[in-house]
Amino acid sequence: MASIFSRIIAGELPAHIVAEDDTHIAFLDVNPNALGHTLCVPKKEVDQLFDLPEAAYNQLLLFSRRVANALQQVVSCKRIGLTVIGLEVPHVHVHLIPLNEMADATFQKKVNPSKESMELLAQQISAAFSQ
């Protein structure tokens, strides 16, 4: 069965997409640790990060770097954290989390932004990514 991310990629489920290329997509996390928490996902469904072929692994990290740079232009934070956990969804994904304190990276502290603020943030990050 297709992962929830594959369903987003196929357009079957909505998402606040901030960036996309031929092989990757980035969208705002629906249960964010911090405002701007973004997921970078390869379009080809692979369960674990280290199962990716080396070239695909490197391309995912380069794509994530571009998204992180755009995110940092839009969201006020000390830095953008990167983590790969992969227990909740069996589809490789990189978490980019704006960090101001260690609690932002714990997956215990959550924020609840409005739909409107998520839409605006997605537009702003997308514009910064396209520059």
Element-by-element helix/strand order = HEEEHEEH
CA-based shape? globular
Strand order of the largest sheet: 1-2-3-5-4
CATH topology: HIT family, subunit A
**Structural class estimated from helices and strands:** alpha+beta
Specify the CATH homologous superfamily: HIT-like
Keywords:
131 residues, alpha+beta, HIT family, subunit A, 3 helices, 33% helix
Describe the protein in words.
The protein is globular, with a radius of gyration of 14 Å. With 131 residues, the protein is of the alpha+beta class. The chain has a single domain, classed as HIT family, subunit A (2-Layer Sandwich). Strands 1-2-3-5-4 form a five-stranded antiparallel sheet. It has three helices and five strands, in the order H-E-E-E-H-E-E-H. The mean pLDDT is 96. It has helices spanning 4-9, 54-74, 115-130, and strands spanning 17-20, 24-28, 38-42, 79-83, 94-99. Helix 2 (54-74) packs across helix 3.
Task: Give a nutshell description of this structure.
The chain has 131 residues and is an alpha+beta fold. 33% of the residues lie in helices and 19% in strands.
List the helices and strands and how they pair.
Elements: H1 4-9, E1 17-20, E2 24-28, E3 38-42, H2 54-74, E4 79-83, E5 94-99, H3 115-130
Antiparallel strand pairs: 1-2, 2-3, 3-5, 4-5
